[in-house]
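Notes, p. 3: input format for complexes.
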Amino acid sequence: MQRSLYISPDKCTGCLQCEMACSFEHEGNFNPAKSRIKVFTFHTEGRFVPYTCTQCDEAWCKSACPTEAITLDAATGAKMVNDGLCVGCKVCTIACPFGTINYNTTTGKVMKCDLCGGDPACAKACPTQAITYIDAEGTGYDKMRTWASRTDTQTAAQA
Amino acid sequence: MSWQKKILRVNLTEGSCTAEPLNMQWAADYLGQRGLGSKYLVEEVDPKVDPLSPDNKLIFATGPLTGTASSTSARYSVITKGALTGAIACSNSGGYFGAELKFAGWDMIIFEGKAPKPVYLYINDDHAELIPADEIWGKSVWDTDKILHAKHQDPQLKISAIGKAGEEGVMYACIVNDLHRAAGRSGVGTVMGSKNLKAVAVRGTKGVSVKDPMRFMQTVMEKKKILAENPVTGQGLPTYGTQVLMNVINEVGALPTKNASVVQFDGASKISGEAMHEPRASDGKANLVTNQACFGCTIACGRVARIDKEHYTVKNRPEYWGASGGLEYENAWSLGADCGVDDLEALTFANFICNEQGYDPITFGATLAAAMELYEMGVITDEDTGGVKLNFGSAEALTTMAEQVGKGEGFGMILGLGSKRLCEKYGHPELSMSVKGQEFPAYDPRGIQGMGLTYATSNRGACHLRSYTVASEILGIPEKTDPLVTEGKAGLVKAFQDATAAVDSSGLCVFTTFAWTLEDFYPQIDAACEGEWTLERLAQTGERIWNMERQFNMAAGFTAKDDTLPKRLLTEPASSGPAAGKVNGLDKMLPEYYELRGWSKEGVPTPDTLRSLGLS
Amino acid sequence: MQYVVIGAGPAGVTAAETIRKQDPSGEVILIGDEPEPAYSRMAIPYYLADKIPEQGTYLRHDPKHLDSLGVRQLKQRVTRVDSAARQLQLAGGGALGFDRLLLATGSDPVKPPIDGLDQPGVHHCWTLEDARNIVKYAQPGSHVVLMGAGFIGCIIMEALAERGVDLTVVEMGDRMVPRMMDQESGNLIKQWCIDKGVTVHTSTRVTGVKANASGAARITLSCDPVGTLEADLVVVAAGVKPAVDYLRDSGIELAQGVVVNEYMESSVPGIYAAGDTCEGIDWGSDGQHAVHAIQPVAAETGRIAALNMCGEVTPYPGSMAMNVLDTLGLVSVSYGQWMGVPGGDEVHRLDSDEYRYIKLQFNGDRLIGAITLGRTEHVGVLRGLIQSRTRLGKWKQHLMEDPTRIMEAYLGATQLTQG
Ligand SMILES: Cc1cc2nc3c(=O)[nH]c(=O)nc-3n(C[C@H](O)[C@H](O)[C@H](O)COP(=O)(O)OP(=O)(O)OC[C@H]3O[C@@H](n4cnc5c(N)ncnc54)[C@H](O)[C@@H]3O)c2cc1C
Ligand code: SF4
Ligand code: SF4
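Output follows (1194 residues plus iron/sulfur cluster):
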């Protein structure tokens, strides 16, 4: 059974431990600016919303990539960026309708969530279980994808 | 490693921003943040300087663990000679700003001189520049935050600013970052305003590295677990915030009420942490919206509150309908119990205004309480107040005055002096509940004896955060002591003072000490920082910092005479509760404290003491 | 069922793969006239800059990929389509029948009506072959004149600069990338280029190109109003147009490109078009048609056309112009109707000193277009907001106050339940 990140924004306290864990995993230091997961603050609502790639099936980023630098990790379902093949053209960053694949000005490549190979650091670091990594079914993960599908070429016409 | 080894020197007079290497010898001796910032101040500023003159400096300092995965790694401190006190000031703040400064590659910013015209500092990683503050001077902290975000087109920008209070010379103006986190006490914002410095806006994308990443992550994980499993840091603080204390402290008869004329407040439960959770009769919603963490914090004690839209304070004022920083215990006490006000929504509103305009709610509340007492005595009159009836218990008086102070209008100008200057002005200096010019906070030393010594000896004027003996005397952390006795308190205070000085220099939050001791800190520091960090070294660092601060104050003109308490606490016994009949026994604790510190009877560190700490 | 795809670019290759997935037993033939394995034109700039070898431009890295899918590949040029007979003519002689046909022949570069463009040292930058020629002439210190500061021109500017050439850009329009950027952002890009040492002449037209026997440089350009310019290499990037010449007598309706309906089907049933070649529904325009010659559209329309060819009825809501451009390190993005619509609302923020700009266009409380400059974070969400037609409600007001809060607006409008 494939697992996915499940996010409960109402549990999030805005501590950004997830962002630090993510940047540590991928960059080796603590640097939220390079985190693949971002927590957005809604000050006047008193809400915090962690957000990252939903690993969509027909991944816009993947199909837009001109050099096949984004591929599917069959084990985890993650769409992975191969730094060796990425030329830094950024076309994936404007194709992804969630804004979750971003250009890294330091490396000249793009970066996105890769589910840490099946053991996401953000979920482990989150002190409130606002981020969990659980069986994709029954997570309400589909709900997260509803909006995704509205951008999807298959259904947008009816929307 | 963990230090960025780089500081930014900003000469406001000349308008220059210069990078310089961090003095690593000092970092080894003073760690960071409070200790290291104070070391720079001590080295660079004449202790006799007028706090508001261009010769005073203003230092923003992070700690080596700021911006790391250690829990509560948000902290930075602002160090200067305090406007309110004339003593060394070090105000500590959380939020996100401090970590961002670190991510931009800076350990510290030293501001010197005075800008000819209002400016703000913009930092984008290595790039630092002073920019004219025309669009934000005269604006509140909240508006400043909005304007700078939009102007720099960067939602991730982190901003620390003064409000109108800092511009107008309110003596206890604070520096507010991330809208409602503040370097709050001693008038550090007043110093910032005197330098024509409106704000610091920073964006950092460089990150922070540590010495031994794997060991660090392992250690940090263990220590986070301790916080999660501790009843105070794991449950009490996230649920009720520091407001968990309101009912507790009231019950032990140590809640200074109506300018500390009594020690228990009838309305305590109405303004408590529990009350913030209760659905309001008016709209069925609770005052508390959620708790919030500072950067890296796994405790998340912060309060986010929303005022009832129908409450008189915000009716037809939608700009105050959104959620914002809610009441912490100290503020609920100062604005509430100390002024005798039990209207939770009014307190929340006054607290919003303190954040919006940037001034310290503890000193404000305590100053208003003193003014209320003078008003009820007939010393302050309606003529002085512009007709506002300054009676204890009046929510209207509280919220009206909060706005007046914020805008520098009417009687607010007088309240902006702080209680010491205000009470002197009206001929009753004894009614100022302050030490070294700074008002003491929410623990009455008649009911918690150790806090008397804490206030009297605190290097920045009365303060609970220099040695929070409440932990031991009330909560039993690390072990229970009797709050009503003076025996053993001198040692307790010294131990807490030194440990806290070390914690305040690390980049982490002192609230972790409900669950952690220095035993839990040093392994994190050792895994992150160059050199070998042991328990002994860390404890000694704390003691060194304490003595260095003391030396600065002595050179500034303070003497043992200033290590005292308001007369009321020493002569008027508590009238109710467990401490009924008691005054504070400072005279019994102070000599022992001096001795334990290795200070002379006059409170002066002996040459031996200084030598053993490497301070001579 | 015999499926034939003409054009082995991103649209054609994506289509062939999708057809195979949908119809495991059908015959799939992919015809392309370029000698190389299927490659991406948009990777050419990185080849020019020596960041990748030629193979780095290949669309699929496994050389056996299409073979293993059972896609037959013909290196041939199609010269004619006989719609009635359901047959293609191949340049090498011979014909090929089809049941379903996809036209994915991309674009041809536009050659402006200027004398002297047909000579060595004057090249388009459209194919790998062009790129090899440019590499040959663009040596450190050589003078290069780039004709056209459109999208492609700006993209290859960085590659040329990295080759160490002395670069001059001549653009007819009054700013850089006039079709993608408005006045403010186009001028900022111009200023940026000038700061980086590129000579930029806007509102300037090249009137003639001559071989130059005498001087140091090989070519002399006459320009109005700048006068003469010397060059060792002239790169012509004056726009592209759909490659549809071989369809003139096919009976297929052509406008600029092959006109298709929402199923990517042309006026002739069974014949579809995708990518640069097709003129499909212009997203958000009330059913008008447009050519959007960009990579993501090529991949998406290739897939949609293939699904429909296989009987998997899949409407396409239309394509939208969207571009990201990195001009010598300054990243710009544009989406949809960035010029706005009558009665709509606009908000923008400009910081010329920092080269930062953002502009959003609304129709009612929906986002319909955007431009950003100097921003790389979360720009994709602009596409999501536009194409999902998200009603922003109160978040529109937030964006009017601070247009950089696009992620917050998206999350606020879609994820936050009012509480
Ligand atoms: C230098 C450069 C940079 C670019 N950068 C970007 C960018 O950053 N972002 C972006 O979105 N787009 C960019 N583009 C545009 C992008 O490459 C095209 O939109 C995309 O290639 C279109 O794909 P396609 O499959 O429709 O057509 P093409 O990729 O053009 O493929 C069509 C194929 O069909 C072949 N063909 C044509 N006619 C026939 C025929 N009669 N018979 C047989 N074969 C035929 C062609 O030779 C070609 O191989 C760039 C293009 C270039 C040249
Ligand atoms: S980055 Fe965006 S497009 Fe790519 S898989 Fe994730 S959500 Fe989908
Ligand atoms: S770690 Fe968890 S609680 Fe902290 S910010 Fe991330 S999601 Fe929120």
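The interface with chain B takes residues 349, 351, 354, 356-358, 374-375, 377, 401-402, 404-405, 407-408 of chain C (CB under 8 Å).
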